[in-house]
Amino acid sequence: MNDTYPWPVFEADTVLPASVYDRVVPHAETPEALLAKGRTITARIQQVTPEDRLPGHKQPYYLRADRSERYLVAGTVVNVLARAADSGDMFEMATVTGGKGAGQPVHRHAQTHVALYLLDGEAELWLDGERFVMKKGDFASVPEGSEHGFRFCAHRTKMMVWYAGTEALAAIRALGEPTDCHVQPDDAEVAWDRERMAAAERAGDIAFADEMFPELPARAITRATLPEDTVPYTLAADEGRKFVGGPEYFALLASQENTGGKFFVVMSQGPESEMIPRHYHNLHTENFFCVDGALDMIVNRSRVTLSPGDFASVPAGAIHAYRMACPFTRFMGFLTPGLFQNFFETLGEPGYEANVYPREPHQLRFDRVLKELESLDLVVIEEQMREIEAAEAERA
Amino acid sequence: MNDTYPWPVFEADTVLPASVYDRVVPHAETPEALLAKGRTITARIQQVTPEDRLPGHKQPYYLRADRSERYLVAGTVVNVLARAADSGDMFEMATVTGGKGAGQPVHRHAQTHVALYLLDGEAELWLDGERFVMKKGDFASVPEGSEHGFRFCAHRTKMMVWYAGTEALAAIRALGEPTDCHVQPDDAEVAWDRERMAAAERAGDIAFADEMFPELPARAITRATLPEDTVPYTLAADEGRKFVGGPEYFALLASQENTGGKFFVVMSQGPESEMIPRHYHNLHTENFFCVDGALDMIVNRSRVTLSPGDFASVPAGAIHAYRMACPFTRFMGFLTPGLFQNFFETLGEPGYEANVYPREPHQLRFDRVLKELESLDLVVIEEQMREIEAAEAERA
Question: In this structure, which CATH number among 2.40.30.20, 2.60.120.10, 2.40.160.20, 3.30.70.20 belongs to the domain B69-220?
Answer without folding.
Answer: 2.60.120.10
